[in-house]
Prior knowledge:
Layout lengths: L1 H14 L4 E2 L11 E3 L7 E8 L2 H9 L6 E2 L5 E6 L5 H17 L4 E3 L2 H6 L1 H10 L1 E8 L5 E5 L14 H10 L4 H8 L5 E8 L8 H7 L19 E6 L4 E5 L4 E5 L6
Parallel strand pairs: 3-9, 5-8, 9-10
Antiparallel strand pairs: 1-2, 2-3, 4-8, 5-7, 6-7, 10-11, 11-12
Amino acid sequence: xxxxxxxxxxxxxxxxxxxxxxxxxxxxxxxxxxxxxxxxxxxxxxxxxxxxxxxxxxxxxxxxxxxxxxxxxxxxxxxxxxxxxxxxxxxxxxxxxxxxxxxxxxxxxxxxxxxxxxxxxxxxxxxxxxxxxxxxxxxxxxxxxxxxxxxxxxxxxxxxxxxxxxxxxxxxxxxxxxxxxxxxxxxxxxxxxxxxxxxxxxxxxxxxxxxxxxxxxxxxxxxxxxxxxxxxxxxxxxxxxxxxxxxxxxxxxxxxxxxx
Length: 260
């Protein structure tokens, strides 16, 4: 309930209305927050995290754990894809890296050059979900860190990517339950509060970079929100502000004072 309570406090402060936790676990399919009485809500709000579940699962069983300690000379980093076969990587890593060290190879990228020069190695690394392996300390202690590709790129300071992204995000089949809960609420206004967890693959870099920026500019375009959604709130766990669409335009709201 931590995220819902964080959203509740923000909504109360921004809208200057009492906001109640609606989902108390007493029945299935309850939406998270409401304004107004339970039998006649004026506004229903559902909270949802923008997180790639496959990415998160891969992160939890791979990079989030302690580094591997292997019988090799150097210290290495293995970059893996979302959905990589982490358990098999753990089983094969020692032999693979021993072979690379034995050949004096300290950096291997799984690309067309590797495929042309060593198709067998290319096929194995690709099947495991490895995109690159490199030695960052040639005389190390045999530590091997699993990681994911770094985020980055051009920063969208104008927020131009947000309207299209949030519409597509809410229209995804993965959010069908969000729309169903709001549709069954009977509220005149239905809002979604979206938590964008930076670095967890739930939103593109253009959206993530915008949200933890200064938010000096608001998006211009209207989002294509699926029925029954009439408003949307978007905030990251970083930064001090979020943005919301209220049906008439984009607005800023503060998040700094509301610690999660």
